[in-house]
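Protocol step 4 of 6: structure prediction from sequence.
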Amino acid sequence: MGRFHHQKKLLLILMFSIAAWISLRFSTMPPAAAQALPSRNFAVVELFTSEGCSSCPPADEVLAGLVSQNLSRSSGEVIALGFHVDYWDRLGWKDPFSSAAATRRQHAYASQFGNDQVYTPQMVVNGAIGFVGSKKTLAEKAVERAFTLAPHVALAIEREPSTSSSTKSLNVTTKLLPLPGQTVAEKYQVLLALVQKSATTNVKHGENGGLQLRHVNIVRDFAVQETKPSFVSNQSIRNSWKFPLPVGVSLQELELVAVAYDAESHQAVGATRQAVQ
């Protein structure tokens, strides 16, 4: 009996030691690493479009097709951003989703690609390649190529809880953390976009007059913050954001998309998305 009790005591000590080690190991893990490690590769697809452009509806359909394939695709996830530019607004129809900020973003890509001209529809994949957005085969090839690139950083989105049932804005925090074995960039540009999942417009004038247009992943608001990595003891970079909510759109129709770009190459190195509610 004495030997049995001695063995039982040693077993209990061993079990408590293992439990203590596990507790210590997970308590010292960076929170962002635990929340944001990606399980799939990604392709960030930005479409610059306009309801006033007769060439754009086919590109909107290409984007919708890429998004719809996420449910059956195993190689990676398409994270889509539909930017509606405003330079078509003076030509017969004002796009209700257009913004000058979207136009400025497209001009920045034109400079990056060494071309001062902008056009619609234009598709940009992972911040690295741009082409005519209605070219379905080209889009699919660019997406598959993007899936071969492993993420360099993990991203997490945290929405601060609202204290009011009639809130008119979102307060959000993003966290960025480099993944093990990946190169850390000198600077990152973190984009956070408030996206409306879908919408339909009956266009009354302009080149698409008389048509009903359907859009997916419409960027209703976005911002970009540049940040230098200051990873101390594997702590994450945090950025704070505030967006007004679009009028007449329920929270269930919205999601948040975060993308991290290497500030020098502008290559997308991490991305995630999260429902607002």
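Step 5 (inspection) to follow. Confidence is low (pLDDT under 50) at residues 3-39.
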